[in-house]
Amino acid sequence: MRMIIVGCGRNGSGLALTLCRMGHAVTVIDSNPAAFRALGPSFRGETVEGIGFDREVLLKAKIDRTDALAAFTSSDESNAVIARIAREIYHVPKVVARLYDQGKAEIYRRLGIQTLSSLTWRIKRATDLLCYSPLNTVFSMANGDVEIVEIEVPPLMTGHKVSELTVPGEIHMVSILRENRTILPTMGTVLQKDDLLYIAVVVASSGRLKRIFGLANGKGM
Question: How does residue 124 score in pLDDT terms, banded at 50, 70 and 90?
Answer without folding.
Answer: low
